[in-house]
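Quick illustration, no need to memorize.
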Amino acid sequence: MKPFRQQNRVIINYVPRVEPAPPDHALKVDGYRDVWMLRGKYVAFVLMGEKFRRSPVFSVPEAAQRWAMQVRQEGEIEE
């Protein structure tokens, strides 16, 4: 059998950035709880404790909101 081509490839996990607040130039997207428009893309900011977790960049607001809901659920499990 042939070996897999990218056998020793490093797996990269996204670690959410921790920020004190969404930046001033971010615009809140109407109809979504945690989604902000940042440089033409959608980013979710979720308040966890006293800090905000920032999502990766998404091209649609629904994906950013799904990420926020998932992070919020994982945070409830950890506590």
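DSSP finds one helix and five strands in the chain.
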